[in-house]
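Quick one: structure for this chain?
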Amino acid sequence: MKIAAVIPCRYGSSRFEGKPLALIGGKPMMWHVYQQASKAKSIGEVYIATDDERIARVCDELGIRHLMTANTHATGTDRVAECARKLDVDVIVNVQGDEPFIEPDSIEAVTAALINDSEGRYAASNACTRITGSEDVPDTGVVKVVFSAGHRAMSYSRLPVPLAFRDPAEHFRQLGLYAFRRDALEFFSVTPQGPLEKSESVEMFRFIEHDRDVLMVEVHESGIAVDTPADLEKAIRFYESL
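Got it. Here's what it folds into:
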């Protein structure tokens, strides 16, 4: 089975313009993500997906394979879906470009979960990690997920879900790490955004709102995602501590 990892990177961002090129230890953040994805044994090819010539130029300078895409995509997964049509692969792993310390084992876990779904029940698998810091629970920049006993995603939210109304609650953070079958990405690309995806700005609602199942895979991660310049400072400190 042929498997590729695609890392969507865009230059424009309301919270952090030029984020993929932000330096951590003297290398652009996207370089760190690319290196981590390349370490996953099941991944045959890794690509940066971008619509920006500045990012493409740095990819060329660093010897990073990349694919140019349209600049009209609503989400990173729409960008990955365009790339899937250009690649001769069976499974595409979407690794977010703002997860510079993503563990290769996490990529393997998400990939294996989808491959082992021999009946094709799930459109995608999505990594999540247990939240241990109380400050992350109310943070709307941290997407929380709730799932069934069989790890089927039930809902996502930027608000604290589940709410600890009567009893203490466990919270899980959704990670920007997904594995898709080709046909699932094609479905994603031709299906309009629903009201939940629009309001929460969480891509996996594209499947859930249209009765397609997503399998959650718990992994153990540092939990450092770079959404803002303040997050970048945290990432730099983490890198320097390694």
